[in-house]
Amino acid sequence: MQLSRCTLRAPKRGAFGHRRPARSTRCVVVASTRQDVLLRSLSEAAEVSVMVVDGTQFVAEAQRRHRLAPTATGVLGRALLGAMMMGAFRKEEEQVQVVFQGDGPAGSVLAIADTRGNVRGKIDNPAVDPPLRPDGKLDVGAAVGKGVLAVVRSHPLQPQPYTGLVPIVSGEVAEDLASYLVDSEQTNSALGLGVSLDRECRVKSAGGWMIQVLPFCSEETLARVEANLQALPPISTLLNEGSSAADITARILEGLGVAPDAESIVPTYGPCDEETIKGRMLRVLASLGKEEVADIIRTEGKLEVTCDLCAQTYLFAQQEVDSYIDSGRDTASDFFPEDDCNDDDEEEVAEGQPAEAAAVAE
């Protein structure tokens, strides 16, 4: 018996009677004072593992950095929340990349998370904002479209990353990630993700939960969890009402008890390590040569490079680039290893897939 896969979406944005902003409207981000938290708990009998994340702050930060339209905020926000729960509390230095390669107007959507709750991501089209669904909710599925979901797990001690591919089921993110966990990692799981915006398109709440059934879980426990999920309101509704991660965990495990000694971390959105990313940016700039760098400065008046994932912009002086070139350091290869902030992340996902994973996507 499989635990039902549940996808929770953002609440209806028309609840306050406001009109949808024009497509060119950018969201004004005013973060709440609530601190983000990712909480992992077990049921008293250690049959079920539950993770609950309140990621309102870091989703708002992603919205601010990437200047996301409303639906783009929902798409990237859900991907970031899901990747964080899939990557947290695992082996030290392990990293997970979640890539949605859909045919919708959002383009490619990338989220990268590590075991400590650090998460970054990007969406090809930050202005994507299709019409609302008939029920008045953000049409995340239409923005993502159909295609392939790729999940890459990597660790410095592994000879190569593990990559799994599954078809995008709905484009609503939570259902797709649950499908991946069941089909590719054989983990009986359910996920709920939600991003709620206020009438000014600010992130009002963002969070999610992930349930994993552990070995020797009884049918009675499984039935109780499923019943609890059926009665559980959307995650964004719970957060808007003031529920904490511990409160939501207690509702999911109602009747089963929550084991003591739950683990928690404070998740954050970027930025990338400045020293590391600036060094790699210098290698790219140096590969252009002194003359082209000088021409860019003459034409643009400055030399700046922006990281795709954290959206942080760095300024470089011509003398800084020239000195790097004169030092004779490598400028021709290996600009960005697999965990860097760059567009090559998607290309790495598409190469060297296991035969059985590639067959799923056909």
UniProtKB/TrEMBL annotation:
Concerning Pfam families, the annotation shows: HSP33 (PF01430)
Q: Low complexity composition bias: which ranges?
A: 351-362
Instruction: Please list where the region (Disordered) is annotated.
Output: 328-362
The keyword Disulfide bond belongs to this UniProt entry's keyword annotation: yes
Q: Which parts pass through the membrane? A: none
Keyword Cytoplasm recorded: yes
Per UniProt, the ranges with Acidic residues bias are 336-350
Cellular component aspect of the GO annotation: cytoplasm
Assigned keywords, A-Z? Chaperone, Cytoplasm, Disulfide bond, Redox-active center, Zinc
| Any one Gene Ontology BP term | protein refolding
Q: Give the protein's recorded name.
A: Heat shock protein 33
Q: Which organism is it from?
A: Astrephomene gubernaculifera
